[in-house]
Amino acid sequence: MSDFTPTEMMTIAAARALTNDDVCFVGIGAPSAACNVARLTHAPDITLIYESGTVGTKPDVLPLSIGDGELCDTALFTVAVPEMFRYWLQGGHITTGFLGGAQIDKFANLNTTVVGPYDHPKVRLPGGGGAPEIASNCGQIFITMALSKRGFVEKLPFITSMGHGEGGNHRERLGMKTKGPTRVITDLCILEPDPVTKELTVVSIHKGVAREQIIENCGWAIKFADEVIETPPPTDTELSVLRDINARTKKAHEAA
């Protein structure tokens, strides 16, 4: 099972970022796939939390939205949304948030609101939902997005979720005590913020990807760490688990 797609590599690399000890606030889509692959492989004791208030959920298929009944049916318990945000999230009980976005800049700020001017946008996006609060209050944030000039832009038209702001110690100056984004996982590489400037820097390149591909698909002059490693390719077990849950999800949603 040596053949894999860039999307599969991205999802599995994202899953590997999680540990058994994490209490993780999960976004819908790619973050949800990554978190559940982690749960079904190396991190069976991870606690997955979704915005609708489901705690310790173990879905058999990936949810279509935070309101998917699969989440409540398989959760240890469900709390009201205000409790989820006021007690669990703002109370500092969640170690990791896993988010995606439509656009991201070099300081890992996310846009899920509009493309173009706010009053007359080219595209009206779904909005922030709980992502701004997740980005501010989780211990750290992982982000998963496919690398493209459309998504990785020099300047965001709108900042929905705070990453590292203008870079440097901007989060600290605003009184934010959490780490913010610590890793961005794409279909071509993995990026981490520079310790000082907080600018996203390539630290790992997926097998078969050339640096030129990364440069061509990024909307800013992307930087590479002094030592860049090759991302270990997916194992047979990781691929099998990911493909199985995707197949179950497709079958369930088609039947519905």
TrEMBL record:
GO terms for molecular function: CoA-transferase activity. The keyword Transferase applies. Pfam families: CoA_trans. The keyword Secreted does not apply. Keywords: Transferase. InterPro entries: CoA_trans_fam_I (IPR004165), NagB/RpiA_transferase-like (IPR037171). PANTHER family: ACETATE COA-TRANSFERASE YDIF, CHOLESTEROL RING-CLEAVING HYDROLASE IPDB SUBUNIT. This is Glutaconate CoA-transferase subunit B. The lineage of its organism: Bacteria, Pseudomonadati, Pseudomonadota, Alphaproteobacteria, Hyphomicrobiales.
